[in-house]
Design brief:
Elements: H1 10-38, H2 47-74
Length: about 80
Amino acid sequence: MEHANDYRTLEDIRMRKYELKRQIDDDGKLIGLLWGGLFLKREETTRGQFISNIISHSAMAIDIFLAVRKLKKNYSGLFGRKSKS
């Protein structure tokens, strides 16, 4: 077959149908593999690791808060507010 729309017999149509079905099945398998790779399960963490992560993230949040507060206090003119002097 030269073109996808150049069908001369019923057998040509059946062959094209088979080719399209095979392509769709192959694409479906590929999409399934890619989709499954998006949602990987996380490894189970122990209670100690969980608590360690909470403390670590809390300390980071406090550091960020204090840094932003200090920057706003020292550079309040950049943020559009007048300083409270």
